[in-house]
Task: structure prediction
Amino acid sequence: LYEDEQRPGVYRALISENFEILPNVAFRTPDGLIVLIVVNDTFSENSFRVQWNGKFAGLRLNPGAVGTYVWQTN
Result:
């Protein structure tokens, strides 16, 4: 994570796995939220997994969809 120059207290994490297929970015906000935004700019449904703190979530995005996922860090 690194601090966003535009918004002090907001941290960014660039997720590199499958970045060519599902571009994404994650932010950690000052109030302890993680916000993940994932884009499926392909013509087919794509699946991916999110891991946080030893837990996993299997997710899918329809073609052309943008997914926003938010969770508490504590």
Summary: The beta strands are 2-3, 11-13, 24-28, 33-39, 46-52, 55-61, 66-72. The chain has one domain: 2-72.
